[in-house]
Amino acid sequence: MNDAPALTPNSYRDTWCGQVLDDRVGSQVRLSGWVHRRRDHGGLIFIDLRDRTGLVQLVFNPDEAGGAHELAHGLRSEYVVSVAGEVVNRSEETINAELPTGRFEVKVKETEVLAASETPPFEIEGFHGEVGEETRLRYRYLDLRREQMQEAIKLRHRLTTAMRTFLDGEGFLEIETPILTLSTPEGARDFLVPSRLQRGSFYALPQSPQLFKQLLMVSGFERYFQIARCFRDEDLRADRQPDFTQLDIEMSFVDGEDVVAVNERLIEHILGEMGVEVEIPFRRMCYDEAMGRFGSDKPDLRYGYELKDLTEILRGTEFKAFGGVIEGGGQVKGINFGQRELSRAQLDGLIDDAKELGAKGLVWAFREGDGWRAPIAKFLSEEELKNLNEAMDAEEGDLMLVAADQPAMVATILGGLRTRLAERWELIPEDAGNEFCWIVDWPLFEFNEEEDRWDALHHPFTAPAGEFAPENPGGARAQAYDLVWNGVEIGGGSIRISKPELQAQIFQTLGISDEEANERFGFLLDALKYGAPPHGGIAYGVDRFAALLAGFESIRDVIAFPKTASGGDPLTGAPAPVDDIQLREVGIELRKKKLPGQS
Ligand code: ASP
Hints:
- This protein is an alpha+beta fold.
- The protein is built from 17 helices and 22 strands.
- It has helices at about 60-65, 65-75, 135-140, 140-145, 145-170, 210-220, 255-275, 285-295, 310-315, 320-325, 345-355, 380-390, 405-425, 500-510, 515-530, 540-550, 580-585; strands at about 30-40, 45-50, 55-60, 80-90, 105-115, 175, 190-195, 200-205, 225-230, 245-250, 285, 305-310, 330-340, 365-370, 370-375, 400-405, 435-445, 445-450, 455, 475-485, 490-495, 535-540.
- It has an eight-stranded mixed β-sheet, sandwiched between helices. A five-stranded mixed barrel has the order 1-2-3-5-4. The protein has a five-stranded antiparallel β-sheet with strand order 12-13-16-14-15.
- α5 crosses α7, α5 crosses α16 (about 540-550) and α11 crosses α13 (about 405-425).
- The protein binds aspartic acid (ASP).
- Aspartic acid (ASP) binds near residues 210, 246, 494, 538 and 539.
């Protein structure tokens, strides 16, 4: 990690640890940093000194180092010291090939202890997987001293810098939007902040800068971006953070093609800066095709194992479990997972997997001759089995997994199995490159069965493609695009509605009354009346982007001070109760918990 920043020598240092290389041999250097490791060879004391740029070995010789050697006796891990001495070559046998500075050492003549350290609760060198997350986060400032974390945070910086450089070069202006604001609908719950000056009123923290970026387009800035903090109060879901960072972009006088084109160049630039080459333009896939072939709106295209539609082959089958579903408007689909040897317990395990994904059941079968080896084989005719094998390109011994349900559920089950099993059975080829894909042609709305109404699939400001027919919301398509990278959705956006009448119509379709629309979004509807240019944009999840680049599973590893999966911060103790006085000032009284037996 030798990325030494420019240095103006001062009384603490004139050289970074990572700069103790060939060209310094024979010269005097002054270094400062943390004691990474100390080895006392009775007489000679060795210390690895660490700063932001890396490690260097210090040697304290009792004959030469005098008082410095005395001090070195008392040094412990993580003490902060400043030393001065001469850079020398190490003897052949002591060269450490793993360290960039491993051929050199500093013979120390002067030492100053700048700060002592208690024994850290975990070793800074150790692999972080061995330390519990609570402990890591409780002592995050120490956790962040680890090389791996230092690298992750630096990478994140390089990532956001690359974003800024590219967008600045393209004439985008970085404009900040408010954190204390009014609710923006991105589909999650808002975090609320009570107002002291207007008791009983609340700010909401932004779920995204969506409406402000649209207003900036009405204001004529034409190209905006922001590395924006966003807040969504969601239920616990794996690897979500209540506050997270988006790269938020908006442009005027553009259509979807323009947004896609500039964003492909953005991604090419960013990844290029990170040493990853990608080819643009990226491929595109319609939402329906992605759902149909991969059972997912963020398909991982590094491997096949596509869903095959078996509905027509099985229409009219005697086997009720399939026939009944098809009659009820459902589908039967399957995936051929190729030759696999699985025990009965493992096969049953797959059924459990499917049930976890919401399936009522799952059929497994191996091709055997022209038929199937499967518990349900006897219920299907020879003809049906032959056709199924053909439709699934099954060869002798291939494992097929088949699901029958309503189309959305079939996609969830088989798409879910496809992703899980790709991991479990290591189906992603080792030499697979990066697969980027735009998912386009999204439905504008989805029907919310529970609440018996239409919801916006992206958000209510997404423009429909073509004429909007309010009588058929299910048929409306959106001018929306999501960018998927190796099966992860890294960004999504759309062309926005720029006409107030159309925006009002969409609100109506969503069951938002005029009154409510005015109350919540009146400012947007007003703004659209004053000459709103056609506009559109996109937002990327910066945390996820950084985690993918750094090769971390969790976004928590690329956030300096993240929260735990349950939204807590073990470092500061947030969230925490507040004083009665503070509550009174904002006019809030907490409800007393009911005692057992009280009504
Ligand atoms: N505001 C959207 C989001 O946060 C992104 C966009 O439409 O630009 O997901």
